[in-house]
Amino acid sequence: MLRLQWFRLWAVACVTGFGLSAAPTAWAKADLFDDGPPLEITLTAPFPALVKSATSSTNPYPATLTVSDGSGPAQSLPIELSPRGMTRRTGGYCRFPPLALKFDKASAHGTIFHGQHKLKLVTYCRPGDDYEQRIVLEYLAYRLFNVITPMSYRVRAAEVTYRNADGKGEALRRFGFVIEDVDDMAGRNDRDRLEAASKQVRPARMDAKAAARAALFEYMIGNLDWDFLAGAPGAPCCHNSRLIAGRDAKPESADGVVPVPYDFDYSGLIDAPYADVPEGLPVQRVTDRLYRGYCVSRAELPAVVEEYRAHRAELAAVIAGEPHLNPAFRARASAYLDGFFKVLDDPGRVQRDIVGHCR
Fold first, then answer.
1. Contact 259, 241 (CB under 8 A)
2. Phi, psi at residue 241, to the nearest 5°?
3. What values do phi and psi take at 50, rounded to 5?
4. pLDDT (0 to 100) of residue 15
5. Can you give the residue ranges of every domain in the chain?
6. Which of 278, 286, 301, 328 is closest to 211 using CA atoms?
7. Could you tell me where the beta strands, DSSP code E, fall in the chain?
8. Model confidence at 91, in pLDDT bands (50, 70, 90)?
9. What pLDDT was estimated at residue 169?
10. How many Å apart are CA 320 and CA 322, to the nearest integer?
11. Contact 69, 36 (CB under 8 A)
12. What pLDDT, in 10s, does the model give residues 241-300?
């Protein structure tokens, strides 16, 4: 009997020990996108070479990332930095490209980036407060959609310092943010990323309510630069959005497909100086709203409209409570959000401007 009791105690201790040793891995990965203070990040890399090559190449460069989340001493780890994106990288307007951060599993162990492999970093476009405010607004666009649904990309704000590896020139400090990996976002929602060709997934295969939520979000922020089912000519699905579906689903047979939007710099909420209205759409300015959701979601729209109305105070608080926004940009963003709710509060306008514009 004593031997049996001893064995049971030993077994419990082992299980408990394994549980405790396994838990930090899961927690560390989740901690990155917890609602914590902005990360303090310093990137040291051959930035002159990286920026010069960015318009024609996304080749990686060796770099060092030093990070602190405010809960302990700063930690440094080697990473690879790659230019990424299209418009901001190749359009000739931005002086600095968005970046991809690639982590080595071993070196990231024990840091806030534990378990991460590759993350998008949204960087500054040009020096100057006006441009930085627009990066803050893009960060808030992601946060606004987080209020509506967990099937959205989480983001973490960062104060990023850029240092040249050769030590020349002054370091530059700017607001930025990292975006959750698509597979982590899908897995968090018990789904998988669905890789599909342009227009391979039909509208009837989408989760009608989730598609309505996403389309109404794009309408709220005044974004026209997206498509949930098609990519640009010659590109796979989808333009500025990703599809997620049930585990191991196939594009030709998946049902309940959920579109998850990203990349909002062309939206009216941000009103970037380089943003244009996509060709062929009947609006004059990027700040003009046009509903472009699919008619397959028409029956779900009244309920989704009420969801947004129910979250009005939370959505307004996202903008009102952001310390990085200056008063002028906060007032402008709040007024733009109010314009959206003026439509939702008017049943006639909902029918005319939203339901009546489905495609």
1. yes
2. -160, 160
3. -60, -45
4. 36
5. 32-123+152-182, 189-357
6. 301
7. 39-45, 61-68, 75-83, 99-103, 118-122, 155-164, 172-179, 192-193, 241-245, 258-261
8. confident
9. 87
10. 6
11. yes
12. 999 999 999 998 999 999 999 999 999 999 999 999 999 999 999 999 999 999 999 999
Task: Tell me how many degrees the CA angle 183-187-193 measures, rounded to the nearest 5.
Answer: 45
pLDDT, average across residues 17-36: 53
3-state secondary structure of 317: helix
Whats the size of the chain, residue-wise?
Answer: 359
Q: What is the pLDDT of residue 228?
A: 97
Angle at 228 between CA 277 and CA 244, to 5 degrees: 145
Mean pLDDT of 58-76: 91
Strand partners, 40: 68, 159
Q: How far is CA 350 from CA 148, 318, 344, 347, in A?
A: 19, 24, 6, 5
Q: Which residues does 130 contact at the CB level (< 8 Å), separation at least 6?
A: none
Region 211-215: mean pLDDT is 98
Sheet holding 241-245, edge to edge: 192-193, 241-245, 258-261
Quick one: average pLDDT of 180-194? Answer: 97
Backbone φ/ψ region at 183: left (φ over 0), alpha (ψ -120 to 50), beta: alpha
Among candidates 318, 331, 279, which has minimal Cα distance to 138? Answer: 318
Helices (H) and strands (E) in the chain, counts: 11, 10
C-alpha distance from residue 19 to each of 11, 12, 24, 26 (Å) = 12, 10, 9, 11
| pLDDT value for 231 | 92
Cα Rg, the chain, nearest whole Å: 22
262-281 burial, b at 16+ Cβ within 10 Å, e below that, comes to bbbbbbbbbbbeebebbeee
